[in-house]
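[09:14] KT: can someone run the structure on this one? pasting the chain below
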Amino acid sequence: MFKLNTRRTYKYPVTVTVFDGEKEESGKFTAVFKVLPNNQMQDPENADKRLLDLVLVDVEGVEVAGEDGQPLQGPELLSALKNDPSASLALVTAYQESVSKKNRSRI
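[09:31] RB: done, structure tokens below
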């Protein structure tokens, strides 16, 4: 019998490209997402929340410097990534890809 864990989390690779002046830089890191049940996704209480606020749990392999030059950690790191347009788009894309890719049949 298949047992479904509805409170699961998983790691998924994220590829991000940022433009800094004339330079284009690409990099990869790992995000930890939680599976968000459909009823929570559609809950009116979550209507004003961003997807990443609901599903992003942690990240690994990425560094963002704070105003003091020191690497951010924990909630401050997640907030900085969610607030950066390039990083947040890469995270949303990775989450959506992970949900659809994991449920595609294998040929």
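[09:33] KT: thanks! The chain has one domain: 9-102.
[09:34] RB: yep, looked fine to me
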